[in-house]
Amino acid sequence: MESPLCQDVPAGTRLIETFRYVPGAPVARLPLHLARLGNSAKALGFAFSEGAVMRAIETLKGETPLRCRLTLGAAGDVEISTADMPAAAQKPWVCRISEVRLSSQDMFLQHKTTRRAIYDEARADLPEGVQEWLFLNERGELCEGTITNVVLTMPDGTRLTPPVASGCLPGVYRQSLINAGVVREAVLTVADLANAERVHLTNALRGEILAVMEGTPLR
Question: Which residues of the chain are modeled with pLDDT < 50?
Fold first, then answer.
């Protein structure tokens, strides 16, 4: 059956996977990257060859860790580019709630594509001293950041992350935590965010980053 998204994908849209290359080491969480890419390709009606993706990854080389951006076109063509790894966070990222609301009905939010204007524009507008916006959806549910998923550690020690149905990307690092049984999905609100003992931002490139809401001291 044809995906309902197939006819709505703008020409030139590409799927994205971003990961770290470390000389002499396998790509971390590669099966999860491949699974997400394959699932999104199927949902959007893109051609997908795991072999072609692996051949592109096997061309990577360098003497230092690299930030890698692999993209897949509708015809199944694969492109990969690299850049220096960003510096590791030396202190918690300061976050602020964005006034922009995501739509839980926007199925494109569940796929990492080059349709990133809402995130890129928000990130370009980060106030001085703030490293990440956190988005809510139309119901006031916590979703994600511009380049991160969100994990809250609650007072009882439970670690929670918003479900994809709230309007967020199924991040690879996020999925690894869910698969390991250390994080579970739950609908979360600003009240949960305020009540959390710890807030972490996650993505495949950086792992986990301790975060704090602007003006809120660490506990």
Answer: 1-4, 218-219
